[in-house]
Design a protein that fits this description.
Helix content: 25-40%
Number of domains: 2
Structural class: alpha+beta
Strand order of the largest sheet: 4-6-7-10-8
Number of helices: 4
Shape: elongated
Distance between the termini: 15 Å
Radius of gyration: 29 Å
Largest sheet: 5 strands, mixed, barrel
């Protein structure tokens, strides 16, 4: 095929390879754009829900996915004798735990876990941090967070200790009910950063890859597809000599 002063004569194998790789690369780019839109929806939903006025937790029970990220108020008292340390939590590159304290609720006669924030590990993991807290009835504000549906653990079983606090690897509500000996609501409350009875709190929604990164990845895939197409055209094109071009024009 002659295009201007070039002869485009694609070979069989380069053509087959391009026909396979070009849709593949373009498809990856489109998939990344779809992921970006999905993540952006999550970000916008989180922002919108956190701006809603705080509601009593009891008014949102039973919790659903639409309840996540809602600001709520609760009243009860901490079970300071049975606190949990969620292991392998990082803050600014430092290892530590997140402190989960059961809150016995007054109005619904049940218990909910309150994530009171991050504490660092000590010089030895055998020495657990001191976890103080208020005694008696308290009222607090928090953000609803639903535990992950799929539980991932590094080991088959978590090591149990006779004393408290106890270190856990994941928030498995059923397993924690067995440890504590009483029922729990299927959610976690992220304690308000202004509450005086917490630890380090910098609650950020965890989305993994951000929407902007997904868009950047999409651009990379589309760029690779464009480069592949240019290479295919360049490899299979040959510039004709002036004499050959003149002969072709004369035949026309």
């Amino acid at each position: 095929m002659r295009v201007g002063s070039f002869d485009f004569s694609p070979g069989l194998w380069p053509t087959l390879a391009t026909l396979i790789l070009l849709p593949f690369l373009s498809g990856l780019g489109l998939w990344q754009l779809e992921r970006a839109d999905w993540k952006q929806t999550l970000v916008d939903t989180h922002a919108a829900r956190t701006r809603e006025p705080a509601a009593a937790l009891s008014s949102l029970l039973p919790v659903t996915a639409a309840s996540e990220f809602r600001n709520v108020t609760v009243k009860g008292y901490y079970d300071l004798e049975h606190q949990l340390l969620l292991d392998n939590r990082l803050h600014q590159g430092h290892a530590g735990y997140q402190v989960l304290t059961p809150l016995r609720l007054n109005d619904v006669s049940t218990t909910v876990l309150v994530n009171r924030g991050w504490v660092p590990t000590g010089a030895s993991r055998a020495v657990l941090p001191e976890l103080d807290g208020p005694a008696g009835t308290i009222r607090l504000s928090a953000l609803i967070k639903l535990p992950p549906e799929e539980i991932f653990r590094l080991g088959a079983d978590e090591e149990r200790h006779a004393g408290w606090p106890q270190v856990i690897q994941a928030i498995d509500i059923a397993a924690l009910e067995d440890r504590l000996g009483y029922a729990l609501l299927p959610l976690v409350l992220l304690l308000d950063p202004d509450d005086a009875h917490g630890f380090v709190r910098d609650w950020q929604p965890v989305y993994g890859v951000t929407p902007d990164k997904h868009r950047a990845y999409a651009l990379q895939w589309f760029t690779l597809a464009a480069v592949l197409l240019l290479i295919y055209i360049g490899v299979n094109s040959k510039r004709l000599s002036n004499e050959t071009v003149r002969e072709g024009n004369e035949k026309k």
